[in-house]
Amino acid sequence: MSMDQGGGPVIRNHQLRWGIAFVIVLAGILAYANSLTNDYVWDDASSILRNQTIQDMGNIGQVFHEDQHRYGRGQGNFYRPVLALSFMVDYALSNPAPGQDPGPLIFHITNTIWHIAAALLLYALLIRLGAPRFVQFAVPLIYVVHPLHTQAVTYISGRGDPMAGAFVLLGMWCALREGSIGKRAAGIAAAMACLVAGLLSKESAAVFPFLLLILALGAPTRSESSVARPTLTRFMPVAIALLITIVYGILRATVLQFGEDAAMPDAPLGQRIVETGQALAIYLRLMVVPTGLHMERTLDGVPAWVAGMGYGALTVMLVALVWSIRAKKTRIAMGLGWFLVAWFPISGLIPLNAPMAEHWMYLPMAGLLWAVAEAVEPLTRSPRAKPVATGLVYGACLILLVLTVSRNRDWRDNETLFRDTLAHNPNTARVHFNLAVTYEDLEGNIPGAQRHYRRVLEIYEERKAENPELQDLYWDEELEAHLSLGNIALNQGAIDRAARHYQTLLRLQPEGHTRYIMAEAAHGMAQCFLAVGETEQARSMLEMAAQLAPELMPDAPAIQESPIS
């Protein structure tokens, strides 16, 4: 630091940059410090606690050819080996005692580090893109404390979003490197490595080549040569990234296709178009006023006119994009293009496993924040406006930080999370199911478990009554609710009630995960027959169980001749 002519301090550029970086890191730590004491929740069980692969560093190669949730209920289709490797490292660092689960502290610390890293990389990218100082300061600072990210940061299994986001941001920073041919080649190579790491962290990184194209079209050139960077050189990393992404897509559709989760049939195109507008309106509202956040968002009950608001906002963005291109407001155009490109895959037009999710906005939000900050920045240039603008940014960040700290508490444990989610969305079957499992397995609250298992069945009955074409369909939560209610009734001696639940399951077709449910139902039915002295029927049920899933019933059809008590 030196002194200006009037005797005041002059902060050099590199000192100011380090200062802004420090503020971003500090803000991220303050926002998520109270999440470090949270427990494992939801899919953390299948991602970490039951995931035998990540519990042994000797299984490094195995994570590259298996589903991320292979230890969950049924077979999923989540190929995220780099994410699994990060869990493996955390598990090793936790060093749990034999037979004990690792504490969640290190996992939460790692999530926070990845999120702060993504914010710092966003800051570095804005510097490389020539953004004004106000934009460099405001965008990553708001980004790092925004509560819409809690689902990706506080939730351990949400780590894929900040990991993929960090790799995408770092890859774009590397790809835009200027200088000699050697430096550019090294930058492109590093960018492609980041792309691969991002794709293997989460599928959302597939937007990388399209985001890079937008930045390549608008990024300033600081080439050391006397001429602008040749077009071929500027767009070469885009072409390579697109090729890598296409190859990844082919592999995921073939040899790395593990199956599909049970889900509602794809909605008709007309319905998806309406839901796209509704979801966009809600996303934009949550970015501006991030209250009422919860895990399980649906669009049931959302008025149709909300879609009009969403499409109205989309129209405004498209008009602003065209205007900014014509007016040569390049960075505003890049920010808007970034948002639209990253939002489109999760817009709802392409069928996904949910109509919307808060954590899906992890990458799109960065682009929209950038565009808005660039549009506002000219108003902050006067000497009087600068401190006011800085104060407003700090004030907004303080409010967002408080909201984030508050939202972190909702993720404290399974019961807290599920009860909070049901307070916002009482008709989500899988949350009722997960709360029932929590009550049954972790808290021994059998009446509470029965109440929520029954609510699962009621929700699906209501759906089928509204949509007759769904009558013959069954969902995993529905099947397992029948199985759990049957097992609880059997343990309570309510044989008839248990048998009704088991018989419902035994009428199904033994396909995929269903055959394991049927095998357990057959085993339970055998116990029902034994309880009433029907030994031959019990033996027949055990034989069925062994045929359906011999790996689960290795001792069948061995049977005691006396009824159980």
Description:
By secondary structure, the protein is mainly α. It has a domain at 427-548: Tetratricopeptide repeat domain (Serine Threonine Protein Phosphatase 5, Tetratricopeptide repeat, Alpha Horseshoe), CATH 1.25.40. The chain has 22 helices and two strands. The chain has helices at 13-32, 44-49, 81-94, 105-128, 133-145, 150-153, 160-175, 181-199, 208-218, 231-253, 269-288, 305-326, 330-343, 362-376, 385-410, 414-424, 429-443, 446-466, 476-491, 495-506, 514-531, 535-548, and strands at residues 2-3, 9-10. Strands 1-2 form a two-stranded antiparallel sheet. A hairpin with a 5-residue loop joins strand 1 and strand 2 (9-10). Helix 7 runs parallel beside helix 9. The longest helix is centred in the last third of the chain and has 26 residues, at 385-410. It is elongated. The relative contact order is 0.08. The model is unreliable at 1-8, 223-228 and 556-565 (pLDDT under 50).
Question: Keywords, please?
Answer:
565 residues, mainly alpha, Serine Threonine Protein Phosphatase 5, Tetratricopeptide repeat, two-stranded antiparallel sheet, 2 strands, 63% helix, disordered N terminus
